[in-house]
Amino acid sequence: MFNRSFRFAMLLLGICCPFGLQAQQTLMPHSLGDIQKAEKLPAGMRFTTTDHHLVWITSYSPTIIRVRITDLQPAADQSYAVTANAQNAFTQIQENATEWILRTDSIVVHVGKKPLRISFYATDGSWLDGDDAGLGITWQGSQVYSYRKLLDQEKFIGLGEKTGPLNRRGLSYVNWNTDAGYQTYSDPLYATYPFYIGILPDHVFGLFFDNTFKSFFNFGGSTDDRMYFFGAEGGAMNYYFLGASTVAGILQDYTSLTGRMPMPPLWSLGYQQCRYSYMSQQQLLDVARRFRQDSLPCDVIYCDIDYMRGYRIFTWNPETFPDPKAMTDTLKSLGMHLVTIIDPGIKIDSNGYEPYLSGIRNGYFAHYPDGKPYTGSVWAGRSHFPDFIRPEVRQWWGKQFEGLVHSGVTGFWNDMNEPAAWGQNIPPVVEFGKGSATTTIQEVHNVYGMQMARATYEGTRELLQGYRPFVLTRAAYSGVQRYSAEWTGDNFATDDNMMMGYRTLNSMGLSGESFVGMDIGGFNGNPSPELYVRWMSLGVYTPLFRNHTAKGNTSHEPWAWGEFNEALVRHFLQTRYQLLPYLYACFYTSHTTGMPVNRSLAIDYTHDEHIYDPRFDAEFLFGPFILVAPVVSTQQAAEVYLPHGQWYRFSTDQRYAGDTSWWVPAPLDDLPVFVRAGAIIPMQNAVESTAQPTDGILRIHVWYGPDSTSFTYYEDDGLTYQYEKGAYLIRQISFHPAEHQIRISTPEGHFTSRFRQIEWIGHGFPADAQFSVNGQPVKVSTQHHGNIVSITIPADNQAIIISWHK
Question: Pairing between strand 300-303 and 337-342?
Fold first, then answer.
C-alpha cells in the first residue's frame, strides 16, 4: 500500500510541477544520430545510432515496409491495429560508403549513415517519400516527430474521420478521440485513423503511423512548403510505408495489415430508424407498426438510453419496457431487428446491480495508481469504466450482454466510448492493463472505443450462437473494421453538415472502415422539409442508412413530413432495397479486399485534378459503378463533374460525356446519380424488409459502353457465419462489348441462390440488336422506345452467355 501511495503522490507531483520532475530532461529538440552498428534480421535490418536509438526496418510484403525507432530498452512491440506479421520481401541489401540500400520488387529504401535518414523510392528511381535531410526523426521531451520532405505538387488524402476538403495539403489535424458536437471544420472528432495517402504527379504512397498517443499531422500547414510532419506526445516512432502503385492497391495493403470487416448481417444494410428516445415499449412498437401500415421499408429500430433503469447499462426499465422479449418477438413478426445503446460507464450501485458488483469484485475497472477505481460522471451518475485493454475484462464485458440477447436484441450500439465523462478529461495518471502491461490513459485513450467495440463484438458473436451481431461504435482506432460499423456522431441539421458528412464518410473509406454512416437528418437541430428529403435521398447511397435525432427535435419518421414527402421517402427506401444485391456484393468486396463501399473519386481517378476541386470533392462512387453527387437542399440544379468515360443518369438513362462538368437538374425527388458505361448492377424487386421474400427474380442491369467491365456477385444466408465454411454463392458477371457478349459464370460455393430466375436488362444497347442466350435466339422485351431491353433466364447452375448482333 505504501508503494502504491508513494507512486500516486509522485505522479500527482509530476502533474502539478512538471518542470520539477523533468529538470534533467531537456525539452530542446534533437534528431536521430549516425549509424553506429548494423545488423541483418530475418525480415530486414536493425541499426543502432550514436544517440542511443534502435532503428528496425522490416518488410511485411514487397510493398509494405515498417520503420520502428525506440531507445535501447524498447517497450513490448504490440499493436491494437496490426494483425499481420513481418515476412522477408527484400531481394537485395547493399552497403556503400554513405548508405544502406534495401530493395524489394516494388520499393527501394535508402538509409543514410551520417546522419541516419530514410528515403523511399519507386523501382524506376522516382522519389516517393522520406525524411527531411536536416530534421528527420526528432524528439522534444517525450514527443516524437517525423519531419518529411514535401514536394510542390504533392497532395494528401485520408486520416479517416476528419472534416475539411479531400486534399489535406496545407492543413493540420490532431488525433485525440473527443465527444464533439461538431461543425464544418471541427477537429478532433471521435475517431483516430493515423493513416494517409500521398499523391505525387506519377506515383502514390501510403503511411500508417501506428502510435496510440495523442498525435499530430501537419501537411505543410505552417512549414513554408519545406516539409510536412507527423508525431505523437509519447511512444515510439512506428510507421508502415505502403508503396503499391495505385490507391486501391494501398488500401488493399493497409487492410492486409489492419484486418478486414466480416460480412455484416444483411438486415443491417436496410433502413434503420432511431431517435433519442422512444420512451416506451408501446411507443416503439407503434412506430414499427406505422412503417408497415404505410408500406415503408425498414429493418431496424433503436432503443436509446431511456430504455434502461436509471441509465444502468444492461438493464430494462420495468415500467416503460415491461416485456422486452414480447417486444422483440413483435418486431420480428414485422421483419425488424432491435438495436440497443450501451455506454461504457457502469453506475456505482451496490444494491444488487451485478455489472458493478462483479466488476468491483474482480478489479475490472480503470484505476488510479493507488488502486482506487477512477470515477467519472455520465448519464447514470457516478460511474466506473471497464479496462477494455485486458482480455479478461473484454470477456467479462461480452458476457454482460446475455440478458439483452435473451430478450431478442441483435444489434449493439456503443456510444460515449472516447471515453467521455461530463466536464472533464480523465486524469492522465489513470491506469489500464495489468502487470508489466500496465499503462495510462494517455496511451490507450485513442483505442478505448475500439477495444470496447471488440469486446462487444466478440461477446455478442458468441452469445448469438452462430448469428451475426450488428455492432456500431462512435469512437474508433485503425483496425476497428474487424469488429464494428461506425457513425460520425452528433452532427447538425444543416446543409453544410450534410455535405461535410459525405466528405468524411469518403475519407473513412480511405482509411479501411467501409461500414460507415451519419445521423441522417442531423442529430442537433431541426432540418427543413427540403433538407430532410434531400438527406434521405442521399441515405440510399450511404453504407449505414440510419436516421437519428435528439430529444426535443422534430420527429424524423417519414410520415411526420406530410403525405407528399412521405411518398418521396418511400420511393427512396424502395430504391435502397432494390439495390441490396449490388450493395451486399460490394460489402463482400470490402470483406475480401478492403475496398470501401463509398469510394472517394481519388481511388479510381487519382490524378484527375478536377476531383479535388471544392465544388466536386464530395462526389463519390457507391460501389464500382454508381456515381453520387451530393447537392444541398436549396438547389434544384447543380454542377456535377463526371470523370473519364461515358455516363448515364441513373433515373433517366440520359447519356453524358466524361472529363467535364455539367449543369444538371437536381430536384428533391431526383438526386444527381450516374452510372458508368459498362456498369453491371444486380437488383431485386422492392420489399419492406430483408426478412420478406423477394419475387425470386435477380435483375442484372448492364449499361452499354465501349470498355469491358466485370462484377463479382455474391450471396449467402445474410444471417450466420456459414459463409466461412463455404456456404456462399459467387458468380462472375462480365461485359465484353468487342465480343458482343455478357457472361455469367457458373456458381462457386455451396449456397443455393434465393433467386430462381435472372432477368437481364440492357440499357443503351444498339436498337436493332438481335440477342441469343447460349447460342439460342431469344425474344426480348423492350421499354422506352427500345432503349431498354430485357431477357428472362432460369437461374440454374450453368454458365450463361448473352450475345447480340445486328
Answer: parallel
